[in-house]
Amino acid sequence: SISEHALNLNEEILVKNLELQGLNLALERQIRKRTEDLWKSEENYKSLMRMSPEPIAVILLDSRIHSANQAGLKVLGLESIDEIQKANLSSYLTDSKKSWDKIIWMLEKEGSVSGLELELTRPDGSKVIGLLHARFADLMPGKCVEVVLKDITEKRQMEQAVKDAQTELEF
Fold first, then answer.
1. Phi, psi of 121 (to 5 degrees)
2. Is residue 149 a contact partner of residue 132, using CB atoms and an 8 Å limit?
3. Which whole-number Å values give the CA distances from 70 to 39, 75, 112, 164, in the listed order?
4. According to the model, what pLDDT value does residue 104 have?
5. Contact between 65 and 89 (Cβ < 8 Å)
6. If pLDDT is split at 50, 70 and 90, which confidence band does 97 have?
7. Cβ-proximal residues to 146 (8 Å cutoff; 6+ apart), any chain
8. What does pLDDT average to over the chain?
9. Whole-prediction pTM
10. Residue 53 has what pLDDT?
11. For an engineered disulfide with 145, which of 47, 59, 115, 122 has Cβ 3.0 to 4.6 Å away?
12. Sequential DSSP letters for the chain
């Protein structure tokens, strides 16, 4: 009979609908959990970046600085996050565009850069010598370069002072 068949179809639809609602609920819970995990991971990353005594920055491929920690601001001679987001790393590099292109080339070739010595010029004209460690990363702005810079300016100045003293002793 047709009414019995319709009743069976309605019952099947109801059962399938309940199954679908259950799956939808499970999916929503999974999405919520993964979103919370991602937020925690991002917070851990930001926390590590903030507390590091070494300058750390996220640089876009065109060399614009996306973000940096307090040590990164200091090494570049900047005061605020607003200043950093208007900055371009190439403009600080003594060899400017050539050095940034070399870093990108090395990253593409090797996958990372470790201990590349660079000279930076701050807005006030003072120089900073640093050892660059970098790698590509896929973060919120897209593909970018994570950079850690070890400031070795004082070490190089001391080495130069020792050389100068030795030269004076020879005369």
1. -115, 120
2. yes
3. 22, 9, 24, 34
4. 95
5. yes
6. low
7. 56, 57, 58, 59, 134, 135, 136, 137, 139
8. 89
9. 0.72
10. 92
11. 59
12. -HHHHHHHHHHHHHHHHHHHHHHHHHHHHHHHHHHHHHHHHHHHHHHHHHH-SS-EEEEETTSBEEEE-HHHHHHHT---HHHHHT-BHHHHBTTTHHHHHHHHHHHHHHSEEEEEEEEEE-TTS-EEEEEEEEEEEEETTEEEEEEEEEE-HHHHHHHHHHHHHHHHHH-
Q: Residue 39 CA to chain centroid, in angstroms?
A: 16
Assign 3-class secondary structure to 102-148: HHHHHHHHHCEEEEEEEEEECCCCCEEEEEEEEEEEEECCEEEEEEE
| Residue 103 tokens, joined | 């870093």
Q: Which amino acid is at 30?
A: Q
Structure token digits, residue 69: 């920690």
Q: What is the pLDDT of residue 96?
A: 64
